[in-house]
Design brief:
5 helices; three-stranded mixed β-sheet
């Protein structure tokens, strides 16, 4: 199998999802940072995103499994809809910054709302360079949450 096959499979699965849901969008697939990105482009993408991104996360999981089937080299597959992933990442980073202020200001651990592993990773990555706070996850899926806490010296 080749990289081209993975791209074609990703394109096909995303087009089939759009068609099956009745959402009129274009599908664009591109190479980005060593992985594949498939994006739904159009005005009516809310159904594909779903509540708190649950639908697009599920589509991404399935798209990854299908696109990488038979591939010897695993690459990341990201599915986006009209820039949703970056908008959500910006909101998560702002939430993380607010949690840091609260944790340091009140000298206490601040648990965030339950979120997916992908969303927790965005916050972990955003805060990993800080030495005054730590982040960790607690709880069980689907209620697993990230906690921002001051480092105790």
């Amino acid at each position: 199998m080749t990289e081209h096959d993975a791209r074609e499979r990703l394109q096909e699965v995303l087009e089939r999802v759009a068609e099956a849901t009745g959402v009129e969008v274009d599908v664009e697939v591109r190479d980005e940072d060593g992985g594949l990105v498939g994006e739904f482009v159009g005005d009516d993408v809310a159904l594909l995103i779903g509540r708190h991104g649950q639908t697009i996360d599920a589509i991404q999981h399935l798209a990854y499994r299908i696109a990488m089937q038979g591939e010897s080299e695993r690459r990341s597959v990201t599915v986006d809809a009209a820039g949703y992933r970056e908008r959500r990442a910006e909101a998560l980073r702002a939430t993380a910054d607010q949690a840091v202020e609260a944790a340091l200001g009140d000298n206490r651990a601040v648990p965030l709302e339950p979120m997916t592993a992908l969303e927790r990773k965005v916050i972990h990555e955003h805060l990993k360079g800080r030495h005054d706070i730590e982040t960790y996850s607690e709880g069980q899926e689907p209620a697993r949450r990230l906690v921002v806490a001051p480092v105790v010296e």
